[in-house]
Amino acid sequence: MPTELEELVGFIAHPNEPIRQIATENLVPYSTSQPSIFKTNQLLPIKHLKFLIRDHPKIAEHAITILINLTGDKEVLGNVASDDRFLGFLFANLTDPAEPNANLLAMLLANLSKWEDFKSILTRKQPAPKGLGSNELVLNQLIDLFVKGADGSYNKHADFDYLAYLFADLAKHAEIRQYFLQKQEYDGVVPINKIRVFTEHASDVRRKGVASVIKNVAFDVPAHPAFLDEDQVNILPYILLPIIGGEEYSEEEMMPMLPDLQLLPPDKKRDSDPRIIQTHIETLLLLTTTRPARELMREINVYPVIRETHLRVEDEEVREACERLVNVLMADEEDETKNGEEKKAIEDVDEDDEKVVEV
After folding, report:
1. Taking the domains of the chain in order of start, what are their residue ranges?
2. pLDDT per position as a tens digit, 49-90
């Protein structure tokens, strides 16, 4: 005999709209406390919840929230992420400039990107929405949504910040790393150049996700020359500015630094999140894989910035990352023992794995 909760789950498919709304609203807390009630009858409740993203906006809000919480379960994740028809509705709704639940849909996508085969998004297409300025490639549309969301110029209901977590997970796949570094024909811009500018954005979610994208793409060692080239990606200013504060440097130390880092105001703040700082430092460590990159970092005097970060950020993991980077930068290029230590320090860097989002 079904429990009261199981009966309530059954009401999410009720033909009467007010009943569906009451049921979904009351079930939201149980999607985290008792998720098993949604896994009955071969995941039939999940099927109903997926259908409800096209329902009345308030019902859709509750249904999406429940799905966000449930996709931390591998079985539910696989069911939702492999449903091509559902994904079609999801992407179409997300790119609708009037969609009131766009931020929740972005959060759901961030979770779906945990599914290994979600990388097939790379070739997925849908009609380009008017006003977005994108092409038919869904991934390009998501990048453009993310950019326009920063100032709310596309959808007044959404900032699309959580797409940064989606991009970070996708960037673990080699073919999508290459996408981030390839100039797109429709606008002539390299995708990573569209998102690198948000490393100092006000949103913690956006900054954290973008830092992880940059780090994960940096695992593509052949792309490092483009990363460092001032006329291509030119990533170093976007990594170094978030980790530098308003501390004073001697003229001797400051003059070789990148122009963006010189004469910063004394009230300049480094990023407040130590995990973001750690991510940026680990990206620098990855970029020291090649000798030209190491020599460039010495030439532009990265060491003093890392020294001050080590002194001023009271976080053990940040300090350990600083020490590993300093060991590489201060090593003698001709010392084979130290070169071996450099290699190990770089190999110890893990890809960023954003946690499953819950609401």
Report:
1. 200-359
2. 999 999 999 999 999 999 999 999 999 999 999 999 999 999
